[in-house]
Amino acid sequence: MTHDESEKNDDFFLQNFLPFLLNQAAERASLEFQAVYKGRYGMLRTEWRVLFHLGLFGEMTAKEIGERARMHKTKISRAVAKLEERRYLKRTRDEADRRAEWLTLTPAGQAVYRDLYGVAASYDARLLGLFSEKEAALLRQMLRRLAGVD
Amino acid sequence: MTHDESEKNDDFFLQNFLPFLLNQAAERASLEFQAVYKGRYGMLRTEWRVLFHLGLFGEMTAKEIGERARMHKTKISRAVAKLEERRYLKRTRDEADRRAEWLTLTPAGQAVYRDLYGVAASYDARLLGLFSEKEAALLRQMLRRLAGVD
DNA sequence: GGTTAATAGTTGATTTTGTAACTAACAAGC
DNA sequence: GCTTGTTAGTTACAAAATCAACTATTAACC
Fold first, then answer.
1. What span, in angstroms and rounded, lies between the C-alpha atoms of B70 and B67?
2. Which of A139, B50, B57, B107 has the greatest number of C-beta atoms within 10 Å?
3. What's the rounded Cα separation, in Å, for the pair A18 and A26?
């Protein structure tokens, strides 16, 4: 486990260090897609994620989005404000618990969601094209395990 | 490829969308280790990476680090400044090309590197403990392919 | 029912990142 | 050797993320 000091130019460890590898892959994999929602709608990743969740799951509270996406509530709060400002979503106070509010996409927001969903799906397919069906399934399973979802 | 609109509460796609999964896994996988270099030495990820590269490869220029780690030069510039301020590295002008400078760890920097290398190695081993040898090898290979290294 | 604690979400201050412009040094072409 | 272009690294400014403190509301407990 100790590093051999007499030997330099050893990139064995670096090439295999999982947090580094994961980060490189994640960064690269989100780069191209980021260019789409940024370029096409001027959105940040946080905003895209919130929109995405609302598109997939329908009505949600900010808290629920935060739990699912593992995003901090301040990020969500600001993303929601931005999406509302652009008329992509609307808020409705929960009358039973007036602290919470239900978020839903407007028709305009749904249109954006559908557009980006399509782009995301084909981008995903392209990434998965690097692997066989079996490999892809295993990869996703392993990533889920690392993420602590399973 | 079109999203089925009549059906809500569909988290199938989300659970499988590779950029999302990769990001979740990467974030989770770096979290605990980040706590170590941050808590123990008050370092940021950029600083840890620069230190790590210098520890692994010995003397390097900022440019080389940037290429290997795929970090932008401003990040590196600031990380180097911070590490120098803490006396973890020293700079030497390249006399043949006076624009470039060679960076090396000081003994203090090397001590930090050795400490963190040990932590990183055992942390990595723990992560890999989630998988079999075969799976782990495949995972790394797939991540490298996604990162565009291979 | 009044006090205390917890929760949903927002805001402000600080830190970190990203982008563009910059300096200093080298290289190429003429 | 002088212009033009390129490169290594820094700096300034804008954008974004983080952290702590805040408001408003609900829940818990005595």
1. 5
2. B50
3. 12
Q: Are A94 and A101 in contact (CB under 8 A)?
A: yes
Could you write out the DSSP letters of every residue in B95-137?
A: SSSTT-EEEEE-HHHHHHHHHHHHHHHHHHHHHHTTS-HHHHH
Do the Cβ atoms of B146 and A130 come within 8 Å? yes
Question: Can you list the domains of chain B with their CATH numbers?
Answer: 42-147 (1.10.10.10)
Contacts A127 to B, Cβ<8 Å:
18-19, 146
Q: Give the separation between CA A80 and CA A85, rounded to whole angstroms.
A: 8
Contact at CB, A114 and B17, closer than 8 angstroms? no
Sites in chain B below the pLDDT cut of 50: 1-2, 4-9
Q: Which nucleotide is nearest to A47 (CA to C1')?
A: D16
**pLDDT tens-digit map of A77-107:** 999 999 999 999 999 999 999 999 999 999 9
